[in-house]
């Protein structure tokens, strides 16, 4: 214990230096990854007016927090270094108590910062609540949460679909959110903040996408075994592409022409499928599961967890609860022949 009294301090300084370098490295590597388009969806990469307002509030908070961090940590480091115990110095430091000026300053300053942030948050909330465009530029979609997928109804267009929320760019899309079972939360970080979907209550919010593209999101309220598998997919199309999509969706399902697909339709309409699913233009009008009239036109299956490919459709039909734990669709123990036929029938339903 007779070594240099500076050794513990040097060690502490080295440790602090190393931590600072590591933190800086993590930030430098992580920030571009968060801001990158597509993966993962980030509210720091806004694609619509709502998320842009939220991101700008976040940036202001980030700047204020950074200034506070640098000042406070800087003062701690300077104090620790300048007023450290020197070698051979055995005297007690001057004992002080209280400093009215300093105490008033460190009470008023944080209070001012908190009040400023509070007012800015209120202003942001008001901006988010305001409808930006004329009524003619708006449309409405009913968003209905299910365990574990989203249903979308377009009451003015007579369309019911699932999993992909298709919207036109540049238009305000009013969302009326509800749920048929438990509480879910609709969240597409690049388009807006979270809005809860309750049973027996309609919540309102709106989104608008600036450019065409696919914006991913996630159910943000723990809703059961497959909460994490309950994705949100927003497909934003140009107004022209959207009009074409509306025409396609309003049509009944195309009747199958090849033999295997016809066999698939028979399996579908004589089996358990029609108890839960609707295919417009056929006898199938079940309401528990997603409407499958144009299932082939969607980007994803199984509430957004699987890309819509033939292989994934087979995988899903073979054993739904194995893919999505807690899935309401049970394992129907379909034979390989039945799965071949159902796949041939459902895939071309564009
Ligand atoms: Cu729905 Cu979590």
Please list the strands of the largest sheet in the order they lie side by side. Answer: 3-2-1-5-8
Low-confidence sequence ranges: 34-38
Q: What's the story with the biggest beta sheet?
A: 5 strands, mixed
Q: What is the strand tally? A: 12
Give the percentage of residues in beta strands: 15-25%
Helix/strand order, N-terminal first: HHHEEEEEEEEEEHHEEHHH
What radius of gyration results from the CA coordinates? 29 Å
Estimate the global geometry from the Cα principal axes: elongated
Query: What are the bound molecules?
Result: dinuclear copper ion
Number of helices: 8
Structural class: alpha+beta
What does this structure look like?
Mean pLDDT is 87; it is low at 34-38. The chain has a 5-stranded mixed sheet. Strands 4-10-9 form a 3-stranded mixed sheet. Helix 2 runs antiparallel to helix 3, helix 5 packs across helix 8 (336-346) and helix 6 crosses helix 8. Helices cover 40% and strands 17% of the residues. It contains 8 helices and 12 strands. The chain has 350 residues and is of the alpha+beta class. The protein has helices spanning 7-35, 49-82, 100-129, 239-250, 259-270, 310-318, 320-323, 336-346; strands at 138-146, 149-154, 159-162, 164-168, 172-179, 184-186, 195-197, 203-207, 213-218, 231-237, 300-301, 306-307. Strand 6 (184-186) and strand 7 (195-197) form a beta hairpin. Bound molecules: dinuclear copper ion.
